[in-house]
Sequence to fold (532 residues):
Amino acid sequence: MKTSDQALVQFEAVTLGYRRKIIANNVSFSIEEGEFVGIVGPNGSGKTTIVRAILGILKPQRGTVKVRGRSSERLRIGYVPQRDSIDPIMPFTVFDVVMMGRYGRLGLVRVPTSTDRSSVLEALAHVDLLDYASSSYRDLSGGQKQRALIARALAAEPEILILDEPTNGMDLASRTAIMDLIKHFHSEHGLTVIMVSHLLSDVANYVKKIMLVELQFFQVGSVDEILSEANLTRIYNLPVTVGEWMGTKVIIARGKSV
Amino acid sequence: MSDVEIFRTIITEFPYALLGSLVAALLCAYLGVYVVSKRVVFVGATLTQVAVAGIAFSHLPFADFEPVYGSMVFTVLVTMSFAWMLQSKTVPRDTVLGASFVAAIALRILMIQKSAAAEVSEIEAILKGDILFVTAQQFHLLLGVFLVLMAIHLLFYKAFIFVSFDAETATTQGFNARAWELVFYLTVGVAVSVATRVVGDVFVFGFLVIPAAGAMLTARKVKNIFLLSVLYASLPPIAGLYLAFKLDLPAGPTTVTTALLLLLGTWVLSKFKH
Fold:
């Protein structure tokens, strides 16, 4: 595995957990600038824990997390949480929600300027939601909400875009549109992207590098190395078939009774 | 007594009752928008009971200080402990609040038993919502608290609103969500403790919930919710005091009932509109 001092993010023998409960033990990996990394694993395996450490929300119990070779540096992060984690009881407009992406740059007391408003409109245009700027966020469809949250992350002018289950609960069309959008930001704008997903097919067809997280066990490598039949069958404890159809990687799990 | 005479009497004889209930209503209505939108209404209910327990404590024979300080100390201590206890994954949030709520009521009853008769009548006046005898000193303290808390909330509006909407993402943007949550609950704690001493627990809890609920029924933008909530809160104290005089009723519950009728009217209108 390649690690270097120039890596955007570098984990060195990091142990993560909550009090006495260790979730990831002695994990080392690096994320280079411009990479598209997928984080996959069974439910409850610790994917979110790794992301929380990258976000700087969770401090390592042991080891160090470095940004560009320095443990004191902070990344400008565009974070897209699971959209169900947001309770939109307040009637925020889509513009309001995306403007929150500028709050980190504005600090505590500065009010948004015309530059901030322009950045918000630009981000909305990128995700094709400009016409919805004054609509209520809570009235949007699932796919539109996801686009709004991606726009909010982009409004922060991030060095790295981190998405937590961005296609969860979406229909096929919305799912494909969101994945194409993320791929576009990575390939056209050179944005470093980390995406957590439990949908292996989404990850397999869009990313180059994969982190497979199991409880207390961790693998990093290329899609072909990590998403092999033997590996997935062992991890999910199910017969898993990996194949290709019309240039698209297909991963199918067969139930034990099938 | 004619209507004009009633209003003249309120303004000349009980100016601090009118001003105090107005300021308390506006403060609670503003904070209530967060209380309702964060779905922590029971925190408001619990803190008002803790505030009354603090007032009862300050009336015990060995305690010799202004009741508002007892109320403030109790409420701030409980608020700070909430910041720790409400994070627990083993004890549900409503269980913590329910236990605190019933403990505050039990403590208050026990402390009233041990207070002198004269002091008991003062606590009972608060519980009954008898707000006519608000003093100049109580009003000035409430006004000071109102100005400070509103300044904090308006100055740090972005932090409160971001953490309230999406605490996790706010943290990634450099906002210490846990610290801002604590600041929020402390502002609610201080507001509740001082306002409860002045206008009573029913009034404070009522105005933490009702105006915000009414505003949420009608507003289409977040900033309008705050504005409408404060507007909703400004009418019932005047109407409530008038009705209390006219019908010889305790002013606090009358004001809350007026606010409820306003909420009901808003709800009916919003149904027609849709």
Observations:
- Chain B has one domain: 3-267.
